[in-house]
Structures are given as structure tokens and as C-alpha cells.
Amino acid sequence: MLRLAVSSVLMIKPQIQQRAMSSLVCSKALIDGKWVSASSGETFEVKNPANNKVVGSVPNMNAKDAQLAIDAAKKAFYSNEWAGLTAKQRSQLLKNWYHLIEKNTQEIAEIMTAESGKPINESKGEVAYGNSFMEWFAEETRRIYGEIVPSPIQNREIIVMKQPLGVAALITPWNFPLAMITRKAGAALASGCTVVIKPAEDTPLTALAVAKLAQDAGIPDGVVNVVTTKEAAPIGDLFCKSPDIHGISFTGSTEVGKILFRQSADGVKKVSLELGGNAPFIVFDSANLEKAVDGAMASKFRNCGQTCVSANRFFVQEGVYDKFVAGLKQRVESLKIGHGDCADTQIGPLINTMQFNKVSGFVEDARSRNCKIVTGGKPLKDLGDLFYAPTIVTDVAKDAKIYIEEVFGPIVTIIKFKTEEEALKIANESRRGLAGYFFSEDVQQIFRVAKRLEVGMVGVNEGIISAAEAPFGGVKESGIGREGSHHGIDEYTEVKYICLGNLKYY
């Protein structure tokens, strides 16, 4: 087995050259190293949200197909084709995968833009960002350390080691179709787990492209499996109830995360959940307003506001309120909106009709409650059915949907406040606590507020906070566990204690 893995590493150069001449767009799913159709023969179309044109079609798999993927991952795990490799060998294969993703950045970005509507420059940025997790975990593979603990008894030694969970099910969202896979799969594979990936129905093509590169990297059959489906619930239920799945990682809505959490309880599975946010964005009187506006634009409008860490509720202190609103309005109205394949596009379409209706419904609800629409607040039908104008809403009523719920769209809601205590109180009222942002030049205030914000991640004078080196995750109803950083490995390992007794030292 080990010889096969080493030969795969050595063969990577000719495989890279071969891939450069072929397409990464796949029309089948990957199970046990084979590209397969659904057992029912059914497929579903993947459409570009910018123009509703069909990009491709993929298998509409069911629980029976997913079971085959679980069986393949189980076989690969227990045959030691992956966990049995040395950490150095797994590290090298993950590095191969990293280099292939890097080499194919342009094609992956084009696939991502075509199926998600994301501007092409953002797609390229996501490939680089997502691939940073593959690089990080390729290196972290060799640093999954154990411990030797001083024993309280003279003739014993206490050894602690970390071992892989087994088969991990990874359920990933549409808004970051590459990064959410690499952030999970990189950690799982580094630890020695094998995986079954269920990508979002809106963006399966990116997942399949990345899986194809995993094959080319020499990763053994059955270690990485991808199941595509338009009917996620039965497969999610199978993942939660199957005794052969030892860990589940899910990124998505809080509502779905709670369902998966409940369904996993009977099996006492290890569950990692990265769920919805309702991020506060606070601008204090002491803030540098230019930096604050820059941070607001970066946090709010990346991927058309469709990110879990996107700033959702803006709280601006009364002393700088008018200047901040004016500065932000100017920047929002200068955004270039259009189809993602244009190099100068900054804002693309919303992902689907459901998301479009949600966003437009929030704005209409705000109008009905006499909130002020400073700019935007309307569909852009000339561009396409799913385009919505970047919008600023002020004088927001606390019972408005746009204030209470996560928007997940290009809508800024701004509330004026007087004191730091008031800002913290309203910021912490939410039952969610993924990310939070604030801008201040007062060092004492920075430490006070950073400690008191009830979120898992805080951006201070910064609107973009994600990095492979940093732990990503939330508190309250925004999730369990952490992804990225060395903490990300912990979601896929078990700690084993070994007691060596009756030793003779003298």
C-alpha cells in the first residue's frame, strides 16, 4: 500500500501536464475513484444565476448512492490506504493537490463564476484563499502531536496520542464552493480520515473539478468521494444515522444545522457546525472614517453580501453618523454591477430565486415600517432576474425583518447609537455570534469592546478577517467547533490515552 502511495507522489509531474490539456468540467460524481451516474439515471441542471443559462448537468443521487460512497470511504480507511500512510506521505499528496489547484486557478475560477455568478476576480481570490487551507493542512499533517504526561505512579508512563475519527461527511454551501471544501477536507485528510463530500446543488461543478484534481494528485481511490444531489435531506439523514460515519462537518443555515445536530444525537457523533451569523459592525466616534467605510465595503459586498461573516447590522455613533452614511452612500453608488465574467464587475447576481425573493421582501418590509431607503432598494431587471441594487437603509425599526434576521444580500442597515454600552447591548442581543466588527482608534476601547462582543471572531479596524492560520467559528447558535488553524485538526481526531504499567526503571 505504501509503495503505491509513494509511486503516486512520484508520478505527479506527467499528470499535471496531462490535466492542462483537458477540461475540469465534470458531469458525473466521484465514488471509489470512479466517475459514476446516479443509480436512478436522474440528473439535474446547473444554471448560471446571471443569465439562467445551463452550465452543465450532474447526477441527482439518492441515499442508495450515498451509501456506496460511505462504503468506499470506509474501505479506504480500514484498509489503511490513507490513515496507514506516514504523516510525511499524506503531507506530500496534499501538497500535490495544492499545486494542481494553484496551476488550474483560471479554469476553476471560470467554473465557479459560471455556476455561482460570483465576479471572476472574486472567484480567483477564492481559489487562492481556499487553496491556502490545502497548503496549511498539508504542512499541519506533520504536526499532529501527542504527549508524554508525567505519571503520578513511579512504574507507569502516560502516553496521549491523536488518531483519525474514521469516515467524515462534509456538507458544504454554495457561497464558497471551493474554500468550504478545502477548509474541511484539508483538515480531515491531514488527520488520516477519509471523506464523503455533499456539495450544494447550486454549485456542484466546482466541487467535482477540485475532486478531479485530487485524483490527479495521487490521492488513493475512496479517500475523497463526492455525491451530488438536488434532494439533500435524505442524504443528510443518512450521514447523521449511519454507524459508518464518525464525524459530520456542515456549513450552512442555523435551521438546517440544528436538524443535523438532533439527527446525530443517537449516534453521539462528533459534529462540527459553522452556521448563520448576524454580524454587528460598530463605528465609534473615535474611528478613522475612511478605514471604516473601506471595511464596510469589504465586509458587506463581497460575494454580493452572501457570506456568513458579512456585516449585517451597522451601528454608528451619533458624532460620526452623518459623515459615515454619506461616505458609504458615495462608495455604494459607484459599485460596478454586472455579469461575473466581466473583469470590472464588483457585484453579481444573487444565487437563486429564493434568495432574491428573501432580499427584496426584506426591503419591502422595511419600507412598510417607514424605514428610509438612502440608495438602491430595487431589482435591476435590465441586468437579469436575480440582480438587486446595493442598498442602504436607515431609521431601521427594531421589529423589521431586515434588523432581526440575517440578510445574506447587498443590503446595509444602519442604526444610530449614543454610548458604548448601548452599542454593545444591541449588538449582543442576537442569538447568533459568528463574527463582529468595530472601528475605533481608542486602544482602551478596543480591548474592552473586543472582549465583550459575544462572537467567535472579531475584526478590529478590519473588514476581512478569514485566514488559514486563524480559527474560524462562532458562539451561541452560530455553531460548534473551529475550522482552519491547528484547531481545525481537532474536529477530525480522537484523543487516546495509553497507560504503560509495571515498568522497571531501576
UniProtKB/TrEMBL annotation:
EC number assigned by the record: 1.2.1.24
Gene3D superfamilies recorded = Aldehyde Dehydrogenase, Chain A, domain 1, Aldehyde Dehydrogenase, Chain A, domain 2
Instruction: Note the superkingdom of the native organism.
Output: Eukaryota
Similarity remark: Belongs to the aldehyde dehydrogenase family.
Q: Where in the sequence is the active site?
A: E274
Q: Which GO terms describe its cellular component?
A: mitochondrion
| One GO-annotated biological process of the protein | gamma-aminobutyric acid catabolic process
Native species of this protein? Musca domestica (House fly)
Q: What is this protein called?
A: Succinate-semialdehyde dehydrogenase, mitochondrial
Pathway where it operates:
Amino-acid degradation; 4-aminobutanoate degradation
PANTHER family, A to Z: SUCCINATE-SEMIALDEHYDE DEHYDROGENASE, MITOCHONDRIAL (PTHR43353:SF5)
A Pfam entry, by short name: Aldedh
Say yes or no: keyword Transcription regulation present. no
Tell me which UniProt keywords the record has, alphabetically.
Answer: Oxidoreductase
Q: Which residues form the Aldehyde dehydrogenase domain?
A: 35-498
Please name the GO terms that the record assigns under molecular function: succinate-semialdehyde dehydrogenase (NAD+) activity
